[in-house]
Amino acid sequence: MSWKEKRVEVLREEFISCCLQKDRNKSVLCKRYGISRKTGYKWIKRYQEDRGLENRSRKPKGNSRKTEEEVERRIIEMRQEQLGWGASKIQLYLSGKGYSMPCARTVNNILKRNGMITLEASQARRPYQRFERAQSNELWQADFKGDFQMGDGNRCYPLTILDDHSRYALRIEPKLNMQGVKHSFIQTFQEYGLPQSILTDHGACFAGFKNGYTQFERALMDQNVLPIHGRPFHPQTQGKTERFHRSMKEEVLLFRKLLNLSDAVEVMEAWKKL
């Protein structure tokens, strides 16, 4: 006999009626009705407790995996404060502030659900292959962010140095011009050690003219650091640096007018620690 030939509730009533008759073998009845002994005893108990024989929803009474309202509120607030931040950065930042955070994918879903990620932005994301060195200090990337005017009328030229493997910002140094890079690198070496090689573009402060060497390049080679230069007019070679500069623009420069060099140093240092 199959449970599907009649309405489930009717079959359960028949099964229980048979079980309650004197000298009936419950195991045999369970086998006859095509159910396990565990299921049979469950329905007998439910009948005796007058709890009904209809199917019950298996939906959990609560959702222990649902993100707390306070955490979701902070995620939305952080996105409003930092429009350039994605789910991963928001998740990492709030975790560092002591919040019990869901995974980055859940954070992304929260942003989508609240209309904070457009369809165009989602479609723009494409899988990509990430190229990076195997260990830190194998390769550094260095470049100047495009200059901009400060409140005092001077131009600011931020020098950035990134580790290719970790993408860690080893140095963000606002300057009044593109000179003195050798001294900047010496300070970075003293703090983080020597890399095996340094990748830059063909800017005059980094590369020599007509296969000659700059003082900067000679200083690197004296320390057994190999200077490497990307192909001219091919910024993709320093893709990590380009992306870092875009984040600097979206998260800092679009929202604040830097007053002078001291203000630029303070703001950049604070942003680097985020």
Proportion of helical residues: 40-55%
Secondary structure class reads alpha/beta
Distance between the termini: 67 Å
Just name the CATH architecture of the largest domain.
Answer: 2-Layer Sandwich
Radius of gyration over all CA atoms, rounded: 33 Å
The number of strands is 6
Classify the oligomer. single chain
Question: Sheet bearing the most strands, described?
Answer: 6 strands, mixed
- What shape does the CA trace take? elongated
CATH superfamily of the largest domain: Ribonuclease H-like superfamily/Ribonuclease H
What fraction of the residues are assigned to beta strands by DSSP?
5-15%
The residue-averaged pLDDT reads: 84
Q: List the total number of helices.
A: 11
CATH class of the largest domain: Alpha Beta
CATH topology of the largest domain: Nucleotidyltransferase, domain 5
Number of structural domains: 3
Contiguous uncertain segments of 5+ residues = 1-5
- Written as H for each helix and E for each strand, in order along the chain, the element string is HHHHHHHEEEEHEHEHH
